[in-house]
């Protein structure tokens, strides 16, 4: 019986993770950095880049957008991980 409970728990965790992934895909992050604007979703998909197309500035703007998207994703995952009741090590 314990194995069936574990399978049920795994399915629940998978469903919760998929729900968070959908939520992250719907969150837009806009970063303006040195004349470059990057729009990215919280699941780290670049939607658009516009402004001054200097490669260094674009790289910096994308990196900043990635950093912000990681913060948003971490906050969303906190809620998921807190509700899982994972055993402590």
Task: Describe what this molecule looks like in 3D.
By secondary structure, the protein is an alpha+beta fold. The protein has a single domain (2-82), classed as Nucleoid-associated protein YbaB-like domain (Ybab, Chain: A, 2-Layer Sandwich). It is built from 2 helices and 3 strands; from the N terminus they run αβββα. It has a 3-stranded antiparallel beta sheet with strand order 1-2-3. The radius of gyration is 18 Å and the shape is rod-shaped.
Summary tags:
89 residues, Ybab, Chain: A, single chain, three-stranded antiparallel β-sheet
| Overall CATH architecture | 2-Layer Sandwich
> What helical percentage do the residues reach?
55-70%
Structural class, from secondary structure content? Answer: alpha+beta
Strand % is 15-25%
Return Rg in Å. Answer: 18 Å
Which regions contain 5 or more consecutive residues with pLDDT less than 50? none
Mean pLDDT: 87
**What is the domain tally?**
1
Quantity of strands, as a count = 3
Q: What top-tier CATH class fits best?
A: Alpha Beta
Main sheet characteristics:
3 strands, antiparallel
* CATH homologous superfamily title: Nucleoid-associated protein YbaB-like domain
Global outline: rod-shaped
Task: Give the CATH topology.
Answer: Ybab, Chain: A
Order of helices and strands: HEEEH
Biggest β-sheet: strands ordered side by side in the sheet = 1-2-3
What is the terminal separation in angstroms? 24 Å
The number of distinct helices, counting runs of at least 4 residues, comes to 2
């Amino acid at each position: 019986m314990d194995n069936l409970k574990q399978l049920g728990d795994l399915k629940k965790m998978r469903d919760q993770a998929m729900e968070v992934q959908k939520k992250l895909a719907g969150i837009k992050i806009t970063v303006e950095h040195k004349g470059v604007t990057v729009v990215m979703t919280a699941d780290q998909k670049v939607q658009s880049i516009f402004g001054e197309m200097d490669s260094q500035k674009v790289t910096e703007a994308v990196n900043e957008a990635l950093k912000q998207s990681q913060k948003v994703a971490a906050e969303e995952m906190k809620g998921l991980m807190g509700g899982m009741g994972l055993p402590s090590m």
